[in-house]
């Protein structure tokens, strides 16, 4: 599964930003054809994106394009021109403002037709669905399971807040007057449950106060604590914070790997199902929890500093 700790948004209409993005240490870059591109610049942005994908150096990054949503006149041309022009250099498409599973089925069908026509591997290009309104959230289970191409669900906070008439103009922050709990908790958990039910990743949306790194870190920690895999970043200042927050600490990573190694030894060599690792009892449930942390650590490029020994 791809690492998506930091997902960088880059306007497809800005060649300078497209070039700069290639040097940033993010897990995923999505070249945007939607909200960050003015209507009159859509056609030119497509050409910029195809050129950037074909000629840029995106080593170590998942390469994604966000097309326009299906209520617009641009979506089908976005998909056709980008995939025909640079499909071999593309990992996923983001479909924004998804409200119904039929939208994912449409995109899957169109991608399959293009892949067959162009001689690409059928099914290789994945899909991320961005949930940005109440209808999309209500239908999120069906959306998550609509295609084998589905890789991730993404929360779009700004449009979502508008769709439910949330009384705030600061994206991601608690609305004035909401003093008990977290106004976004249900939304985030709903997305998380749908994603995990279908073995997908789930990514939190952007924090628009781009110079407030402490605020970004605080909001990112909320999503990471729940189990989200990453968060969109809009500025280089947010990149290191995202990579840090959505990576396990060295001690936690080492401990997870120790649990996995110890459990494997005791269940296969000594044939015991529940054992002690130091002062801690570990069993099958411990193994499953450790797998999550170990996988995140490996994806983040962490190296082990401790190894298991049956003698202690």
Kindly estimate the percentage of residues that lie in beta strands according to DSSP: 5-15%
Dominant shape: globular
Beta-strand segment tally:
10
How does the major sheet shape up?
A: 8 strands, parallel, barrel
What is the rounded distance between the termini? 33 Å
The radius of gyration computed from the alpha-carbon positions, rounded to a whole number of angstroms, is 21 Å
Share in helix = 40-55%
Separate helix tally: 12
Please list the strands of the largest sheet in the order they lie side by side: 1-2-3-4-5-6-7-8
Instruction: Report the uncertain regions.
Output: none
Give me the strand/helix succession. Answer: EHEHEHEHEHHEHHEHEHHEEH
The structural class is: alpha/beta
Mean pLDDT, rounded to whole units?
Answer: 93
Describe this structure in words.
- With 312 residues, this protein is α/β, with parallel strands linked by helices.
- It is 45% helix and 15% strand.
- The protein has an eight-stranded parallel barrel, surrounded by six helices. A two-stranded antiparallel ribbon has the order 9-10.
- It is globular and about 70 Å long.
Give a nutshell description of this structure.
With 312 residues, the protein is an alpha/beta fold.
Give the tags:
45% helix, two-stranded antiparallel ribbon, alpha/beta, 312 residues
What is the strand and helix layout of this fold?
Elements: E1 6-11, H1 15-21, E2 28-32, H2 42-55, E3 62-66, H3 75-86, E4 92-95, H4 101-118, E5 126-131, H5 134-138, H6 140-144, E6 150-155, H7 157-163, H8 185-197, E7 201-204, H9 213-226, E8 230-233, H10 236-245, H11 250-268, E9 275-277, E10 280-282, H12 284-299
Parallel strand pairs: 1-2, 1-8, 2-3, 3-4, 4-5, 5-6, 6-7, 7-8
Antiparallel strand pairs: 9-10
Helix pairs in contact: 2-3, 3-4, 9-10, 11-12
């Amino acid at each position: 599964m791809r690492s998506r700790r930091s997902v960088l948004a880059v306007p497809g209409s800005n060649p300078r930003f497209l070039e700069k993005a290639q040097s940033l240490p993010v897990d995923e870059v999505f070249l945007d054809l939607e909200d960050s591109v003015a209507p009159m610049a859509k056609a030119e942005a497509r050409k910029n994106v195809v050129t950037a994908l074909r000629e840029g150096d995106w080593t170590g990054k998942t390469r994604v394009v966000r097309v326009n949503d299906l209520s617009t006149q641009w979506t089908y041309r976005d998909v056709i021109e980008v995939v025909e022009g640079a499909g071999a250099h593309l990992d996923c498409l983001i479909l924004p403002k998804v409200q119904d599973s039929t939208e994912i089925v449409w995109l899957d069908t169109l991608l399959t037709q293009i892949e067959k026509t162009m001689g690409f591997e059928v099914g290789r290009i994945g899909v991320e669905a961005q949930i940005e309104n109440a209808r999309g959230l209500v239908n999120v289970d069906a959306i998550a399971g609509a295609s084998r191409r589905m890789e991730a669900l993404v929360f779009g906070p700004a449009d979502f807040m508008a769709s439910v008439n949330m009384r705030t103009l600061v994206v991601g922050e608690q609305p004035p007057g909401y003093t008990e709990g977290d106004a976004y908790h249900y939304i985030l958990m709903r997305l998380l449950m749908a994603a995990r039910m279908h073995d997908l990743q789930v990514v939190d949306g952007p924090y628009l106060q781009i110079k407030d790194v402490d605020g970004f870190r605080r909001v990112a920690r909320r999503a990471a604590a729940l189990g989200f895999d990453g968060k969109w970043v809009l500025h280089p200042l947010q990149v290191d914070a995202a990579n840090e927050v959505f990576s396990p600490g060295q001690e936690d990573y080492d401990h997870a790997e120790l649990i996995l190694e110890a459990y494997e030894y005791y269940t296969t060599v000594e044939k015991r199902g529940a054992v002690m690792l130091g002062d801690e009892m570990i069993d099958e449930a411990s193994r499953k929890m450790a797998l999550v942390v170990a996988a995140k650590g490996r994806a983040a490029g962490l190296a082990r500093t401790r190894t298991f020994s049956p003698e202690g």
